[in-house]
Design brief:
Largest sheet: 5 strands, antiparallel
CATH topology: Protocatechuate 3,4-Dioxygenase, subunit A
CATH architecture: Sandwich
Radius of gyration: 15 Å
Number of helices: 0
Order of helices and strands: EEEEEEEE
Strand content: over 45%
CATH class: Mainly Beta
Structural class: mainly beta
Strand order of the largest sheet: 3-2-5-6-7
Distance between the termini: 56 Å
Number of domains: 1
Helix content: under 10%
CATH superfamily: Aromatic compound dioxygenase
Shape: elongated
Length: about 120
Amino acid sequence: MVNVNILVKLCDGEGNPLPNKLIHVFYSFDGVEWVKLHEGLTNEGGEVVTTHATDRDTWYKAVFEGDETYDYAEGIAFFNYTSLYVSTCIGFAFNWLIITPLMIASMIYILKALKKALKED
């Protein structure tokens, strides 16, 4: 069993953190059916943190559904349990994996939410 620590950081297109935004984190064992693992508001640094214990290959997805100012953003990563390796699959996700003697994997998602285009009347 490996504990996967997941940190999601939401920022704008210029890299500025976006606080008080709702982030959804999901996991999947097949990459098709997703189970909600966590949801929470980003802190002052634009971050949400959660943990998941797994004993098999697992996909993780972080989602910002967008709001009146920023567009939808998501990132998907695959955790290979056998080799303890994380790879980015799709979206604006950057992953960093550290394996410690306690068998803890750490992943960091950086989601970039782009500002919506201004609508002209």
